[in-house]
């Protein structure tokens, strides 16, 4: 599987560390909303299809990336920096080779 | 349906083996049942078996979207053990072990349960202390455990590199002698046959595509072979839990689906006569009765429904194998494959009533659910029949996460990569 880092270009998956589900939203630290904390810590959408997830290019530029990857085919439909400038979003199709 | 016995073996041998009957019927689905079990894996089949055998509930259908054994029950590496730390897990897996010990007899089907032991290697004194603690916790609950020295380990597994210059020197290990392996396909077939002969309909190539409701109560399922009603609907679909629960309108679960790979080498002469696990990475190995070394390691590490694995894990597992057994460097790998596991957030299973009225849920097996097959079905059948959990599965609720009662044997917090 290749992931195209918007900074470094296409790199092998071994350079990246999976940081999990990118849909989760951390409640404010002071929040006492137990349902929101429960959802953040434990509940997952776990889709069979496109999955919004966070990867770190730990063996490269170390940026955190938001990746949309198909969990059935490993096809990646978009990669962007997880935080910041939306102009840097790289849209491409990479056939997942696993 | 004939009993298997020395006599039936001889009789069929003398008549050219022409008269063996199929092990289970292929009935068409009826319009309704008392209980529908979704998923014809090991857990669904054992649930149906114990519903019939222990509770006399025989108007049951097991619905399987593929063929029996096409899921994880036929893809695992067959290790069976009950060497857990936390009491809830120890009690549950030891209950399973006791069922394993009598399973071939109970099913009249040889599941080739082989108590060749399971040895966890320790590579630091701290790790050995940790194993001593786990062994004491096990013995406290009546489960066998013994600490082994490096010299004892070298005698038991001569091919292991136990030298002080090994990349990860071995300082001892924790052995459970009653642990071992079983023939995984035979477990599925034996339970299927046992359930079938008590009247359970096992319906293959029947995919559940939705749930029927009476008000807010689940009252059946729609399938690729039509609608089927039932008073109780039990879900036991392992890696497909998220997908099937979504059909019932439940969008999130404390579960992720991940792919786990396994490998087998060409056949060798007897090489290792125990299940062995590496304490410095994730690697484990045993030898099949055909002679192949059967081994595996970590999950691929990211959500996946692909029943195949990726190369980095192959690379890592092979390196770990060679760190332990340098002598295997030239042995050829014959096959590798993947299975989709339902990884729960604390590494422990869920066997419960609900979460919807009329529904029962069995999931969260992570990558260790084969050994659980007998106890899982036994506890799930109890829960379905009596509408309350048995003491043994009472801790394995779905709401334990919300209530702060997680069963986190590894003590690593909420992550879908445990056990
Ligand atoms: C490579 C690998 C190695 C493993 N090694 C071990 C080991 O050594 N020891 C151990 O204890 N455990 C091991 N496991 C884990 C163990 O195999 C599983 O936890 C366990 O088998 C899961 O339960 P099951 O047998 O019921 O699942 P499965 O056999 O997967 O059964 C679930 C069934 O549900 C069916 N299904 C899904 N959706 C639907 C639907 N909509 N309608 C109808 N049917 C449906 C599927 O087709 C499938 O047959 C391993 C797993 C893998 C993948
Ligand atoms: Zn980069």
What do these coordinates show?
The complex is a heterodimer of chains A (98) and B (419). In chain A, the strands form two sheets. Chain A has a five-stranded antiparallel beta sheet, with no helix packed on it. Chain A has a single domain, classed as Folate-binding superfamily (Folate-binding fold). Chain A has one helix and seven strands; from the N terminus they run E-E-E-H-E-E-E-E. Chain A is mainly beta. The N and C termini of chain A lie close together (5 Å). Chain B is an alpha/beta fold and 419 residues long. Chain B has two domains: 32-79 and 184-253 and 346-418, 3-Layer(bba) Sandwich (FAD/NAD(P)-binding domain), CATH 3.50.50.60; 115-179 and 256-344, 2-Layer Sandwich (D-Amino Acid Oxidase, Chain A, domain 2). Chain B contains ten helices and 18 strands. In chain B, strand 10 (217-223) and strand 11 (226-235) form a beta hairpin. The mean pLDDT of chain B is 96. The A-B interface holds A 1, 13-14, 18, 20-21, 34, 38-39, 41-48, 51, 53, 69, 71-74, 98 and B 242-243, 251-257, 300-306, 308-312, 345, 401-402, 414, 416. The complex binds flavin-adenine dinucleotide and zinc ion (ZN). Residues 5, 7-8, 57, 60-61, 63 of chain A line the site of zinc ion.
